[in-house]
User: Fold these one by one.
Assistant:
Number 1:
Amino acid sequence: MFEKNEIVEVTITDCSTEGEGIGKKDGFALFVKDAVIGDRVKVKVLKAKKTYAYARLEEIIEPSPYRVEPKCPYHRQCGGCQIQALSYEKQLEFKQQKITNNLIRIGGFSQEFVDSITEPIVGMEEPYHYRNKAQYPIGTDKNGKPIAGFYAGRTHSIIANTDCALGARENKIILETILNHMEKNGIPAYDEEAGTGLIRHVLIRTAFTGGQIMVCLVINKKNTKGEIIKNQNALIESLIKIQGMHSISVSINTEKTNVIMGKQIINLWGEERIEDTIHVRDMKKEGYPFTGEELTFSISPLSFYQVNPKQTEKLYSLALEYAGLTGKESVWDLYCGIGTISLFMAGKAGKVYGVEIVPQAIEDARKNAERNSIKNAEFFVGKAEEVLPGFYEKNSGDEMLHPDVIVVDPPRKGCDEACLTTMLKMEPKRIVYVSCDSATLARDLKILCEGGYELKRVRGVDQFGHSVHVETVVLLSHE
Ligand code: SAH
């Protein structure tokens, strides 16, 4: 057993799901943040348990061959990038391993079986400046100046950084404009503990295809009569000088909560939504050539939209390929957001139903169907685990009761059991599960496979380079 404050020398041989380096000594595991596979390190034990310990990196005695120079000077403090110091190739290997391990450990599948159906992970061509969305917390530094940045890992203390290496390059000038305006006009940042102050977060979304930018300031203010932000017009004047500015709004959030966005959005300038275009490709052909199918989507501030547009094209192309549509099929798209997957499927299916919990996203989805002249897609607002069982009870004889394909793309917590049970009752020929957390994916696959489905194909798509997260697409079949 290790003791607190003990100094230990160890070689890092593995990486935890959270991105910490793992070194083994006398059968004990040491978890070392910021150490990467292959490093020989000197560490100080911080917290010792019976079989493992957490330790702090003191010195890299011999750097790993997989170690690279990170672009961001704050990568160690910031909670966003856990593995920026690991070469991108090795990051992909780690993510592939993470998916496989979860399928074995949580899903109960054998290693051999998983290996036999897993296709090579789809990596990014350029793993920097890929994100189209950022939500910067706003705070105050020691000298009382407003700052924007990111939370340090597992805390709510803000590391000032307006130039994130993963985000759009325009974010810096937008944030500086807002911070300058706050300082000049004495507008206070929100204070989480006291519940006082005004500006909580700034949401910036950039459509990479046309360059349209959306800025939404999340504010702690109930009364929105008259001027909402002091000298609002001056702020708008400065923001609209930035090329691409298309929508400026505020979101009202006066709750003491970790939820970033408030439910009410008030538009201050420009359109309420921005538009982005997605091209799907033929994933079977090498290099993912563009096959000519593209759709344009409008996105409002409260709606979910995939954060990595280049990889989204590959992700959706894969989901389409796995769905195996020929033009006649009936499809449910659960957790459909603004209807992106639903509408791509609609082009190749007979009828598509989308389900989504956020009303604004469904409003967007309906607009998007119209915008792209798609008539065979319908959308329902509600929880998948309520809408689907509700539909199943009330519509006996309907063709959508036993669809050809069900697509699910839930948030990290995965699907609710009521949703999975109804899916099993509906007996679709194929289920395409798109997941941003392979642990809950594996948990849900176990239920679906015990219910009679067979896991056919698995493929990772890296949507989140330098973080420990990875997207996975799987195909299940009942045929
Ligand atoms: N398929 C979409 C959205 C995926 S993100 C896309 O690719 O853009 C997951 C979506 O599920 C979000 O839009 C979220 O609002 C929605 N959601 C979360 N919980 C839900 C639930 N219980 N039922 C239905 N939708 C839910």
Number 2:
Amino acid sequence: MPIKTAYEILNNSIIYFQGEPVGTTAACDPSPVAANYHECFIRDFVPSALVFLLEGRSEIVKNFLLSVMKLRAQQPVMEGHQPSLGLLPASFKVVEEKGSEKLVADFGERAIGRVIPVDSAMWWMFILRAYVIATKDTELIESPELQEFIQQILDLYLRERFESSPTLLVPDGSFMIDRRMGVYGYPLEIQALYYGMLQTGKELLQRTHGDNALISRLNILVDALRAYVRVHYWVDRERLNEIHRYHAEEFGLHVVNVLNVYPESIPDWMDGWLDSRSGYLVGNQGPGRVDFRFFTQGNLLAMLFGLATEEESQGIMNLFDTHWDDLMGEMPVKLVFPAVTGKEWMFSTGSDPKNVAWSYHNGGNWPVLLWPFVGAALRTGRFDLAERALELTTERIKMDNWPEYYDGRRGGLVGRRANFYQTWSATALIVAHSIMESPESRALFEKFTFYND
Ligand code: GLC
């Protein structure tokens, strides 16, 4: 029984602090490949939290939310900079010191490449929202401590710097893809999470404060971000045709090719890739730069959060259907398609051997993506695709001992350096099965109107 084993992995992964459960380790592998897989990563805890909330085990989620919130004080201060209390760590662990326990956070200062976890606070807000929906514990968000923290998060993420668009500018490796992969700038996954976070912040603050200047600002930004992503990230056959025939180097306020995209930048693999039923949101957008790669997590979150329109969401599901082998393969779901190879791999990853073509972040298949995939499939009425994905995964992943990721064009090989008993591979399967059985539980991560209901 794979689901039973998945629960065992989840239960074995629980981290206790002073006798209370506060999180889950990234993997339960007795000899993990990576040194920090015994830590609790904020993003990895997301499907764990969903399982706990679906099961009515909300105490651990509350402990997690409060513990992580306090960890923000541990942020190391870089010389010449001020700490920002809206930033959350990538991960944390329990350390024993002189007979007492301590929670120790990592804000990237111990991580490979010292990458900054921009997504952590956004996932934290996602979990907070799911917690409130599941438990109706509105007292928690009304507490002054929580209110202050939400405000601090928004202060950081709304801070003005060098903005020329409503999207959020981030460095490389600032989210699930936490290695150099040419995903700096305005990656889609960050924009989808940002959209979700702004909506959540709005919901939570409006509840306690009513309308004020911040809420109006959030309203304007949410609308602008949604419109911008829909115009600049969406590509279908019609849009591709438009880009193909673009005039570049236009001056002035009222031009068509606003971001000065050169038609020559359309990659060869796009030729014939989109049929008249399919489309998707591109991976990144910036001046003169479209990253045409298909990034699964960003597209799925955009569907779940309503950043993509209903029609676009249907187009994205059609793309999965048409390119099933490429995007789902033997073990769903491909993280990014296609992989970069040769010189492109050298330049964009810094010749990272873990990220060679069709491995790990560079075109590997990640079972954790199953929960948002099934969520998005149900949302768009594509029950058939959800079922097909689960059929491929359920038995096989248990036989393979719950790897973190798979390699190969079709995702048929266990990832070369994958950990086994990866917690989010197990919890994603549980969440996917649970929402298939009771689709209404998708309310935990959909529809931004919970307090109006
Ligand atoms: C890898 C992944 C990252 C994940 C971590 C723990 O670094 O890229 O997204 O949070 O492993 O599983």
